[in-house]
Amino acid sequence: MLPLAAFLVHCFPLALGHYDICKSWVTSGDSPSWEYHACQPKPMFMKGYAMVKVEPPGITCGDPAEYFCTHENPYLCSDECDAANRDLAHPPRLMFDKEEDGLATYWQSVTWKRYPEPLIANITLSWNKSIELTDDIVVTFEYGRPTMMVLEKSLDHGKTWHPYQFYADDCMEAFGMMSNKIRELTTDNAKRVQCTEEYSRWAGSKKEKNVRFDVRERFAIFAGPDLRKMENLYMAMERVKGLKEFFTLTDLRIRLLRPALGGTYVQRDNLKKYFYAISNIEVIARCKCNLHASSCNFRDGSLQCECEHNTTGQDCGRCKKNFHTKFWRAGSYNPAPRGSPNSCTQAGTILDIVSPTPKPESTTLRKAHMPDSSAYHHEKYISTPTKANPILRISDPPPMKEVKENTAIQVSTIPPVLETKLQHREIPEKIRAAPPIHKELTLTPSSGRKHSKKGTYE
Ligand SMILES: [Ca+2]
Fold first, then answer.
1. Basic and acidic residues compositional bias: what residue ranges (predicted)?
2. How many A from CA of 43 to the centre of ligand 1?
3. pLDDT tens digits, residue range 86-111?
4. How close is the Cα of 451 to the center of ligand 1, in Å?
5. How many angstroms separate the alpha carbon of residue 453 from the centre of ligand 1?
6. What is the pLDDT of residues 3-32, one digit of tens each?
7. How big is the CA angle at 99 (ends 97 and 101), to the nearest 5 degrees?
C-alpha cells in the first residue's frame, strides 16, 4: 500500500501539469536513468523580497507632524501623523508588515494642502529578478481608494515602464479612455491595457478598500471558471505572442494621481481629509526560471533560480559551461501535459532527447524516491532566505512561503507587448473643485493610536 501511495504522490502533480519537478529517476528499460521534465517554482508571496521606493521626497507624512481628518468625519481632525513618534509614524515599511490584532498599519502621505496642485506619489517595488504573476495584485487602502491611479510594470529593472492598468472614478475625464471590465476581455485581447472604474468609485472607506489588478480573471479567459483547465492556459502561453511576457516583470510602480474625494468634489476649506494611506500590497508570483527550475531561493540580496537541465544564471537563461553543444532554449509547456525540458547537453549525451511525451508503460515503474534523497529534497522545497540588503530593503525577508497551488498559476518572459500608445497620458490639469463650504472646524486632541481595521470613527 505504501509504495502505491508514494507513487501517487510522485505522479499526481505531473498528471495535473503542475510542472513541480525537473527530473525523475526511471527504472524501466535496460538501465535506470534520469528523465527530465519542464519545471517551475511554486508561487510565493513576493512583497517580502522587494526593494521599495516612495517618491517624491517628503511625500510621507509626519515631517513636520500634521493633523488629518477622514471622509466619514471630515471636521473631526484629531489624528496626527508624526514621524518622530513611533506610535504616530506611517513609514513605507508598514505597507509590507505582518499585521496583528486587527490593527491596520499603513504608510500615509501628506495631506493635499497644496491643492489645486496635484497630490502625486509613486511607490516602486523592485525585485532585481524577473517574476511571473500567478494571482491578483491587491493594494489595500485605508481611508478610501484613489480616484486616479496607474499601475505600471517594468521588465528591465526600471529603465522603461509600461502601463498595466488605469484606475479612475471617471476614466474618460481622467485618462480620455473608455471604462472596460476585465470579464469582457476575450482570447484575442487578453493582454489589453484598460481603464477600470470598478476600484475607484466611492463606497465608503471601510467598505471597499482593495484595488486589484485582475490576473486570475485574465487567466480564466483560457483556463475557464475557477481555473480548472490550467493546461489550456499553459498552451496559450506557448501559442499567443506576448501572453507570457504580459504577466512577467522585474518592477511594479503604483502612481497615485488623485486621492479619494469621498464621493463629492474637492472641498477647499478642508484639505486635511485628502491623502493616501496604504496598509498592504500583495504580489503573488513565481520566479521566472524558463521552465528549468522547480525552486527559487533568496541569495546574495536577490531571488535566484536553482537551475536544472544543465542551465545556469539568475533565470536559468544560459547553458552551463561545457554544455553548449546545442543552443540554450527555454523549457516548453508543449506537449501537454508534461512539456519539454529542452536541456542543455554535452557532446555525446542523450540528455535532450529523452522523450518528453507521456510514457504510460514506464510510469508504472517510476520510483517515488530518487537515489540521492538530499537531491530530492532540494528539488521539492524552497530553503530559508538569507538577510537582505540592509540599506534598501524595507524589512528582512520573511521565511519562504509557498502559495497553495490552487490559489495560483504560472507564466514566463521577454520584452513586453503592451499597448505603448497609452504610456504617456497626461494628468488632467483641472482637478474637480467645488466652492468652499463654510463650516466650523472642530479640533479635538489626538488619540495617538493606529487605527482599528474595524473602524475608528464608528
Ligand atoms: Ca500594514
1. 428-441
2. 21
3. 999 999 999 999 998 878 999 999 99
4. 11
5. 11
6. 444 333 333 444 445 799 999 888 877 788
7. 160
% of the chain residues with pLDDT over 90 = 61
Gap from CA of 410 to ligand 1 centroid (Å): 27
Is the predicted pLDDT of residue 206 greater than 70, yes or no? yes
- Does position 390 have pLDDT exceeding 70, yes or no? no
The Å distance, Cα 279 to ligand 1 centre, comes to: 4
The answer to whether residue 148 scores a pLDDT higher than 90 is yes
For the full predicted model, state whether its pTM sits above 0.90: no
Rounded alpha-carbon distances, angstroms, from residue 355 to 59, 245, 359, 362, 363: 57, 27, 8, 11, 13
Distance 99 CA to ligand 1 centre (A): 6
pLDDT band at residue 384 under the 50/70/90 scheme: very low
Kindly state the cell numbers that stand for 230: 490550467
pLDDT at residue 204, rounded to an integer:
84
Between the CA of 380 and the centroid of ligand 1 the distance, in Å, is: 31
Distance 340 CA to ligand 1 centre (A): 42
- Statement: residue 139 has pLDDT above 50: yes
Distance (Å) from CA 306 to ligand 1 centroid: 31
Q: What is the mean pLDDT of residues 301-314?
A: 95
Q: CA torsion sign, 73 to 77 to 78 to 83?
A: positive
Q: 278 CA distance to ligand 1 centroid (A)?
A: 7
- 98 CA to middle of ligand 1, Å? 6
The residue among 140, 147, 185 whose CA lies nearest residue 167 is: 147
